[in-house]
């Protein structure tokens, strides 16, 4: 029976206690993503200073205390947080913004014309869920003032003047240690931080961002090509330099770029075409990555399509296809949005005074007026570029014409997919659960293993789709060829959300799509082919964290009544050394050799299994790897293999 509910039951969470009680409401989660969100909150404050034109240098330093706790220091040479007493509160302005939610200088536009942080919760939230935080401020060449906090509470009486030598006459230095009582992990990933800082440097041309890793443990670096602990990001070319790194296989030399301000909205765009089919469009609002697009993306797409169609109307001789020529004579737009976006790589960055985001994560821009501004800006500037660069324009039009020709020739592709979806579930063995967030789909190698998985699954929430053989490599095959592949069609049908530009994340039928392949070289190859498919056809599935790779065991180690499964030779050797003599070792050649109970215990039982979640942390590097290893060009692949051959630790002969 519940207790009494009266006036005494009503609680008021004072100060920052609300943040400590419900941190996910403010930073999204308390896992690794939420942990890194603390860094972004402070860095974004420094970036706002850079956008205001008063900061050109930001340092991010990862440190470690003598007790092993990791810390982050963010330094900038901006104006410095105001430190004088606030006229309406009995405390300094610095203490006000660090200890009170919804306080700051970004609610009007006198201090910041545009800003990424608009809710006044950034540094206060970081303070609330840090075990310790320190802020040092210098303004206008004056003294360096400092204040310290423990779990959101001020521990220093007023502001303390510290004797330090700063190169800059003004700036803010913030150091914090995340609270281990709140977060699932307090380890910062150097690659995650490095990629975001590089992105911010691209988006703010001329800004220098330095990352320094002073921690004792740098295990993340083994995943990185660079071994040093200092990285400097500075790009005078801004997003134009970003495009040069993304589009390494361009069909044309010149890169369309423009930076224009219309009605107090700044629109900066760079784009290029490469030899692939896929399109990559990255959108940002006030430096925030709006990965779900929004009105600026819609405006860009419309402006691009209009500009290219307007250009070919004036230059009919560039079009060879007789059906398209007929459309030109009838004064119709001959290229669809999909035609002009095939092979497109673009960065669209807008700076808006009052951005309206859909959702707390700021992943989609909602300002209706931005669409028209971006469309007008893109139409005029892209059309101007095409007229002034006829050779590049010719290459771009040829690319669009090829896409349009194939679209007309293979219009039945979409109908084929619809027909397969209408035929029922195909080879899919579905589960009984109806809530997508609780459903799991296993893509299993081979009918034999599929049968074992069907017997060993938890039928209420786990579905099985057996795949026969290797799926087609979509990095090499064009869309029409990929859509003739039965396995690709089965996967699209099972997930139920479409593909490519028609993909709708809200229609995904399973929030865990798990690749379950043999733990051998062929199984790894199939995983690579499937990852290529999802990367090119359903990238949103990866971004939402819905894609996983199962870790089936390679060996069963048994001694007496003790039995253990391991997934690598290293684990096998270590366990054999621990257990000593008379150890029985069984190697599984494939999933089909395991009985249903073994498969259930090692791969399918959520309480015992290990899953690897697939993420897209470094877009530039991911693009390079997929192009190199799965693309048409043999030379770069051979060079990659020769360079990294000696680094291979596990190779099935």
Describe the model.
The chain is an alpha+beta fold and 653 residues long. It folds into three domains: 17-236, Heat Shock Protein 90 (2-Layer Sandwich), CATH 3.30.565.10; 241-409, Ribosomal Protein S5, domain 2 (2-Layer Sandwich); 414-552 and 612-616, Rossmann fold, CATH 3.40.50. 37% of the residues lie in helices and 19% in strands. It contains 22 helices and 22 strands. The strands form four sheets. Strands 1, 2, 3, 4, 5, 6, 7, 8 and 9 form a nine-stranded mixed β-sheet that branches. A five-stranded mixed β-sheet has the order 10-11-14-12-13, sandwiched between helices. Strands 16-15-17-18-22 form a five-stranded mixed β-sheet, with helices on both faces. β12 (280-285) and β13 form a beta hairpin. α3 (32-51) runs antiparallel to α5 (122-128), α8 runs parallel beside α11 and α14 (447-456) crosses α20 (596-604). It is globular. The termini are far apart.
Write a short abstract of this structure:
With 653 residues, this protein is α+β, with helices and mostly antiparallel strands. It folds into three domains: 17-236, Heat Shock Protein 90, CATH 3.30.565; 241-409, Ribosomal Protein S5, domain 2 (2-Layer Sandwich); 414-552 and 612-616, Rossmann fold.
Features:
653 residues, alpha+beta, Heat Shock Protein 90, Ribosomal Protein S5, domain 2, Rossmann fold, 3 domains, nine-stranded mixed β-sheet, five-stranded mixed β-sheet, 22 strands, 37% helix
CATH architecture term of the largest domain: 2-Layer Sandwich
Secondary structure tally: strands = 22
**What is the CATH superfamily label of the largest domain?**
Histidine kinase-like ATPase, C-terminal domain
CATH class category label of the largest domain: Alpha Beta
Secondary structure tally, helices = 22
Which regions are unreliable across 5 or more consecutive residues at pLDDT < 50? 5-13, 221-225
Note the beta-strand portion.
15-25%
- The residue fraction in helices comes out at 25-40%
**CATH fold name of the largest domain, please?**
Heat Shock Protein 90
Structure classification: alpha+beta
């Amino acid at each position: 029976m519940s207790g009494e509910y009266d006036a005494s039951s009503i609680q008021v969470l004072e100060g920052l206690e609300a943040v400590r009680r419900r941190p996910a409401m403010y930073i999204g989660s308390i896992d690794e993503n939420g942990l890194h969100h603390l860094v972004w909150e402070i860095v974004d404050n420094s970036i706002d200073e850079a956008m205001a034109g008063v900061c050109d240098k930001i340092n991010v330093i990862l440190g470690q205390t003598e007790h092993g706790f990791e810390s982050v220091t963010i330094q900038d040479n901006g104006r410095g947080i105001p430190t004088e007493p606030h006229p309406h509160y009995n405390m300094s302005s610095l203490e006000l913004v660090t200890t009170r939610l919804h306080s700051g200088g970004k609610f009007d536009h006198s201090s910041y014309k545009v800003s990424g942080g608009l809710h006044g919760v950034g540094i206060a939230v970081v303070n609330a869920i840090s075990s310790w935080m320190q802020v040092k401020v210098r303004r206008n060449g004056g003294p360096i003032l400092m204040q310290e906090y423990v779990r959101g509470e001020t521990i220093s009486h007023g502001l303390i003047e510290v004797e330090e030598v700063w190169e800059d006459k003004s700036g803010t230095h913030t150091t914090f240690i995340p609270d281990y009582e709140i977060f699932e992990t307090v380890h910062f990933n150097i690659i995650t931080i490095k990629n975001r800082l590089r992105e911010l440097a691209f988006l703010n041309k001329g800004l220098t961002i330095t990352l320094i890793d002073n921690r004792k443990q740098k295990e993340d670096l083994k995943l990185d090509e660079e071994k040093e602990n200092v990285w400097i990001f500075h790009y005078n070319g801004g997003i134009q330099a970003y495009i040069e790194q993304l589009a390494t296989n361009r069909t044309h030399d010149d890169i369309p770029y423009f930076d224009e301000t219309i009605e107090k909205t700044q629109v900066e765009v760079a784009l290029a075409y490469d030899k692939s089919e896929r399109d990559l469009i990255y959108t940002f609002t006030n430096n925030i990555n709006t990965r779900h697009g929004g009105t600026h993306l819609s405006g860009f797409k419309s402006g691009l399509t209009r500009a290219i169609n307007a250009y070919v109307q004036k230059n009919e001789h560039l079009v060879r296809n007789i059906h398209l020529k007929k459309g030109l004579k009838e004064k119709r737009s001959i290229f669809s949005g999909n035609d002009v976006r095939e092979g497109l790589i673009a960065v669209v960055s807008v700076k808006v005074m009052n951005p309206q985001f859909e959702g707390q994560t700021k992943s989609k821009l909602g300002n209706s007026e931005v669409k028209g501004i971006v469309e007008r800006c893109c139409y005029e500037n892209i059309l101007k570029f095409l007229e002034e660069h006829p050779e590049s324009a010719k290459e771009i039009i040829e690319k669009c014409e090829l896409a349009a020709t194939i679209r007309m020739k293979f219009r039945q592709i979409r109908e084929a997919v619809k027909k397969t979806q209408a035929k029922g579930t195909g080879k899919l063995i579905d589960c009984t659960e109806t809530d997508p967030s609780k459903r799991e789909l296993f893509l299993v190698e081979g009918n034999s293993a599929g049968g074992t998985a069907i017997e060993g699954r938890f039928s209420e929430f786990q579905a099985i789709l057996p795949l026969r053989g290797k799926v087609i490599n979509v990095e090499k095959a064009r869309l029409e060829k990929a859509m003739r592949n039965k396995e690709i069609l089965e996967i699209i049908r099972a997930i139920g959300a479409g593909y490519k530009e028609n993909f709708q994340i809200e229609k995904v039928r399973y929030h865990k799509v798990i690749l379950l392949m043999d733990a051998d070289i062929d199984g790894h190859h199939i995983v690579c082919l499937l990852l290529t498919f999802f990367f090119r056809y359903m990238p949103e599935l990866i971004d939402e964290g819905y894609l996983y790779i199962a870790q089936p065991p390679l060996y069963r180690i048994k001694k007496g009544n003790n039995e253990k499964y391991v997934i690598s030779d290293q684990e096998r050797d270590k366990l054999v050394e621990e257990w000593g003599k008379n150890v029985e070792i069984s190697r599984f050649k494939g999933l089909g050799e395991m009985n249903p109970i073994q498969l259930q215990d090692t791969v399918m039982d959520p309480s015992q299994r290990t899953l690897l979640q697939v993420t897209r942390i470094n877009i530039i590097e991911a693009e390079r790897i997929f192009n190199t290893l799965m693309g048409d060009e043999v030379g770069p692949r051979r060079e990659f293999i020769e360079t990294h051959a000696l680094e291979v630790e596990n190779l099935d002969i």
